[in-house]
Amino acid sequence: MDPFISISHQRSFQALLAVSFIYIFVIYQMPFFLDQIVFQPSSFSSPSSSSSSSSSSHSSSSSSSSLSSSRKLITDALPLSLPLKEEPLIVSTPFRPSKVSFRDAPLASAAPTPSLPQRQNHRHALQVSGLAFRDISVTGAFSELHMVAKAAWKAGRKVFSELEAMKPEEERDDKRSPKNQTTEKCPHSIVMSGTEFLENDKIVVLPCGLTLGSHITLVARPYKAHPEYDPKISVPVEGDQATMVSQFMMELQGLKTVDGEEPPRILHFNPRLKGDWSGKPAIELNTCYRMQWGSAQRCEGWKARADEESVDGLVKCEKWIRDDNSRSEESKTTWWLNRLIGRKEKVPIDWPYPFMEEKLFVLTLSAGLEGYHVNVDGRHVTSFPYRTGFVLEDATGLSLNGDIDLHSVFAGSLPTTHPSFSPKGHLEMLSQWQAAPLPEGPIDLFIGILSAGNHFAERMAVRKSWMQIVAKSPNMVARFFVAMHGRKEINVELKREAEFFNDIVIVPFMDSYDLVVMKTVAICEYGVHAVSAKYIMKCDDDTFVKADSVMSKVKKVRNGGRSLYVGNINYYHKPLRHGKWAVTYEEWPEEDYPPYANGPGYILSSDIAHFIVSEFERHTLRLFKMEDVSMGMWIDQFNATKPVQYVHDLKFCQFGCINGYLTAHYQSPRQMLCMWERVKLGKVQCCNVRR
């Protein structure tokens, strides 16, 4: 019995071994055997068989089809090789299907697997100023500014190096960081008491600005007039006599449109109870952008003429009694008597000035279709039309200052949706706004535009407006010059902007107003070394430049081979010794500045720029905190060795805009776009007020 079992086990083992051998042959050898039959028939057939292949094409095709099906079944049964972790699986993007079915196409003619489509890279290399700030051994009045510049340059290089080394994924992570996300709520209404108002630094924050129909009501009381010896709203009185003044200012401010500078006054409402230069009570309304005031609208008690422009059907200025007699009471009495006796004709009534010292009033400011309307104690007092560049959604703060005691304030019908107040939201990443590469040969005019890191909206407005003239000219080039900002997220977005638009030159130092002069030197360096320009122009990012007219102006100058300095020239200008822009005697010991062109826009010939760069590289260039005065100082020094022709033209407008301008200063982004639309119509006109 045992031998029989042993023989049976041996036979079973042999049978299992045979089956395993057949299975291995079928799995690993049959596909290659079939491949030889399908793809290399000549190796398995005789010469005679090849001659008869054409006569049996149908049978050959059917057999090939069956073999392909068999091969597919066998191949599907094979185990798939899984990719290792070190070898990431690459999956091609699906392509449009071919009109020819892949199922019907012969395997031998199958197209190779297409390569992965390459993603277009819109980034350009960062342009960095070639200016190199080294140790400069300067003594005397100018040494302090050089030390400040040295420290700013050292800190800026470090910030720029970190920014340059940042990877794209790190930029995205920084943008998504919670500290860079705004979660401010936008209530439909806001109520604030006088005490809360004082605790909030006399500001009512309106997170989403205003919209059509929004209204602000405040209850307040003007203080009694007090003596002032240097009032800003009246003519100074000789001697020690004081002027009695009582006034207050209510302003709508664009708190979120700027960063680190004075917010624009979208509406300035200034009742002057006493102390106005006219000697009578008055109300002034105005706008202000970057310390540049527009044309004031004054209400002095005279009713607006019938042919004057109205605002939503209301006059700009209502009439009030211009003296202190009792005609108002008499007029009211007459009006009531006429009503009692049934007279139907309209009897006019005169009202006093709407504000009185130490008397409570209720003021309502409302946003209409065409402008703002101010009602006091239920009576319309004045209306102010909207001005180009100042819009409702930007009015994100209400301030109240002066001789006034606020009891309460209520803002209603406010927008609840949050528009994009981030300056980065103004960037339009479209190829049509990208700058062309620098030309290989020399050019006629290079325009360097001073800008701050966070001025995204200003730069975008320039690209979409007057820079289009430059882009279409083969003889002009314009670039922005920007230093490092104190906030990392601003620098990250600036890098992204610079890489896309290719029109920003980074000057790697920490930005500050006193060091704007360094950007001016960088403009000169770029103009003579990078683009080899015949003339170099410097302007600001809030300056609208009629570039073609500027070039024509320069070409018309008959300078007889002399060096050229063109702009709105100041002669015998004296330093301010007091106030915000004060200059000490240590900073400038002389009583007069040398002749200099106002900073918003001027032009110099390339030999002057060469001189400035050469002096800087030799460490002998004196720096002064006012860049336009610095330029005048350098040119005055250059003029001692080679004659310079000074060309003065008021059309390089310093304070705002005049029709027929060459440059217009203090233009907001919206004003820039408005002016560009007029230029395209052939009109060199301003957009300061509504037309």
UniProtKB/TrEMBL annotation:
Its main location: Golgi. Pathway: Protein modification; protein glycosylation. GO terms for biological process: arabinogalactan protein metabolic process. It comes from the Eukaryota. One of its GO terms (molecular function) is carbohydrate binding. Residues 202-412 form the Galectin domain. One of its GO terms (cellular component) is Golgi membrane. It is found in: Golgi apparatus membrane. InterPro entries: ConA-like_dom_sf, Galectin_CRD, Glyco_trans_31. It is a single-pass type II membrane protein. The chain crosses the membrane at residues 12-34. Keywords: Glycoprotein, Glycosyltransferase, Golgi apparatus, Manganese, Membrane, Signal-anchor, Transferase, Transmembrane, Transmembrane helix. Residues 164-177 have a biased composition (Basic and acidic residues). SMART domains: Gal-bind_lectin. Residues 164-186 are annotated as: Disordered. Possesses hydroxyproline O-galactosyltransferase activity. Transfers galactose from UDP-galactose to hydroxyproline residues in the arabinogalactan proteins (AGPs). Is specific for AGPs containing non-contiguous peptidyl hydroxyproline residues. Utilizes UDP-galactose solely as sugar donor. The addition of galactose onto the peptidyl hydroxyproline residues in AGP core proteins represents the first committed step in arabinogalactan polysaccharide addition. AGP glycans play essential roles in both vegetative and reproductive plant growth. Belongs to the glycosyltransferase 31 family. PANTHER family: BETA-1,3-N-ACETYLGLUCOSAMINYLTRANSFERASE, HYDROXYPROLINE O-GALACTOSYLTRANSFERASE GALT4. This is N-glycan beta-1,3-galactosyltransferase, family GT31. It comes from Zostera marina.
